[in-house]
Specification:
Blueprint (H helix, E strand, L loop, with lengths): L4 E6 L5 H18 L6 H18 L3 E7 L2 E11 L13 E9 L8 H15 L5 E2 L7 H9 L15
Helix pairs in contact: 1-2
The structure holds coenzyme A (COA).
The site of coenzyme A has 19 residues, from helix 1, strand 4, helix 3 and helix 4.
């Protein structure tokens, strides 16, 4: 029997555990790449509050992918508008994609690419023309995927910790 992939839009506040569980796995993975990543238990409440607020106040969209009815991954983004300190030619609203994750057992099936296509399509229909996102510099898999999806690296974030 062929597998069925369904992508559904969900309200984070109504699906708190589902999204928080995937965020936990995302942050555990992020910790393997960047050791200063906080433990999810220490930031869960504030980060989830932020995600819920962005969904409610900033046209946020959370898409969950279900593989044969099993939650397999998600993507979350919201709209930002730059103030007059912007330096780019673009003046409209922008999409910031803040989080994305696929459980390891469901990877390499094109699930994230489909989540990404779906979120881009949604905001393109709202007139959004610029998308921004961060990826850890050593997240090779994500960076390859992004470049396949047409994203280019335009700036590097340098950090120094004075401790
Ligand atoms: C990055 C991630 C979201 C990709 O999810 P996925 O559903 O496996 O991605 P897809 O199947 O749509 O892959 C699309 C393309 O990405 C690349 N890719 C995906 N997995 C890869 C792997 N294991 N090795 C190398 N390239 C890979 C390939 O170019 C792939 O295309 P192909 O399968 O046709 O060769 C998933 O691996 C993940 O959740 N990783 C941990 C969390 C994370 O890094 N999130 C992003 C934070 S910025």
């Amino acid at each position: 029997m062929e597998n069925v992939l369904e992508i559904k839009s969900v309200i984070v506040a109504d699906n708190y555990e589902l999204i928080s569980q995937m965020m936990l796995k995302l942050h555990e993975h992020e910790h393997t790449l960047l050791e200063k990543t906080a433990a999810w238990k220490d930031i869960e409440t504030s980060y989830m509050r932020h995600v819920i607020a962005m969904q409610q106040e900033c046209e946020g969209l959370c898409l969950v992918a279900y593989w044969d009815n099993n939650p397999a991954g998600f993507i979350f983004g919201y709209v930002e508008e730059q103030d007059d300190s912007r330096i780019e030619i673009h003046e409209g609203k922008e999409l910031y994609i803040s989080d994305g994750f696929v459980y390891s057992e469901f990877r390499r099936k094109g699930i994230y690419s489909q989540l990404n296509d779906a979120i881009e399509k949604h905001y393109a229909e709202q007139g959004i023309r610029r998308i921004l996102r961060f990826a850890a510099v050593n997240n090779t898999r994500m960076r390859e995927l992004m470049e396949k999806e047409g994203y280019i690296v335009t700036r590097l974030l340098y950090e120094k910790w004075l401790d």
